[in-house]
Amino acid sequence: MSEAVVDNIVAVLPPLLQTLEALTFVARNLNPAEFGRVMEIAGEPDAALQAVRPRLADWPEKFAQIRAALEAACDAALSGYAGLRAVESGQGDLVSVFRALRYLPRAQEALYALVAQLPPVSQFFVVPELCEDADLLARLDAPANANTGIFHEQNEPGSRGGFSLYVPEYYTPDRAWPLVMALHGGSGNGRGFLWSWLRDARSFGAILVAPTATGNTWALMGNDTDTPNLNRILDYVGSRWTVDGKRLLLSGMSDGGTFSYVSGLDGASRFTHLAPVAATFHPLMAEMADAGRLRGLPVFITHGQLDWMFPVQTARQTRQLLSAAGANVTYRELDDLSHTYPREINAEILRWLNQA
């Protein structure tokens, strides 16, 4: 690699990664009443990124792939921050904030293409607690095994019913791997929600599936077209990779978490563990659930004390109802969490899953 290209990468990567971390911070700590304060804490890393963005111009053609990935990641990160800045200045509302944050997974997807070429990028997609784990780093530094990485099956933006999939690059078929099925929130999509879990699946070793609902959101009422689709996806993944039938996790955020109850409490569900986040739960769901299914079922509930959409009292009641019905409930209530996804809980959920 030429010295000029190396210099440009060294100049661009730090502010790019800092901007992505800032966007992640905003996404995790978003609370309508505290938006201004959260933005103040996030700072202005986008200014430094904007300043070095011109250094991605006029690279030699043989480095076009690296340049294109960095350009896409930078532009998505800057677009996301620009959207947040507009709301901060009074141009937009909460919906505009959510729209701006959709650029974060786009930037991550573009950047992930460089994990094999750029060690700082690979390090970015490792959980902090394992950043110095020699065994993990050695596995990640090795060439990727066949049939691993990120796949998208009919899951382009705007499509419904497809899924995105991540198989750790060090996957081998000689042992059974835990599977995480992660369901996006209302009006979301699996291609974006994949990035809420990818770093953890990559670090701890799990196959990750992020489907997109067949409708505008999950089938919470009426005809359930989503459960058959999840089963279809399970069949597809299980036919191509070695999946541990005793460690099949159904998780989800908001509507996705609620649907993990709707689908996962059915007596025919194939999932062994449920982990809803920021979900709602009607008492009738416990009464209608299959009694045999509930008995001993491992359920990991995560909810925020500041949740403005589904008040925390709902989660507390759910814990009581499911425990009384015989489920084996683990409950985590986060005092600083609003109605957002807390990525930091993923590691604990995976440790809990791996106790199976």
Automatic annotation (TrEMBL):
Gene3D superfamilies associated with the record: alpha/beta hydrolase
Cited Pfam families: Abhydrolase_2
Keyword annotations from UniProtKB, A to Z: Hydrolase, Signal
Protein's UniProt keywords contain Hydrolase: yes
Domain Phospholipase/carboxylesterase/thioesterase stretches: 243-345
Protein name from the UniProt record: Phospholipase
Organism: Bradyrhizobium jicamae
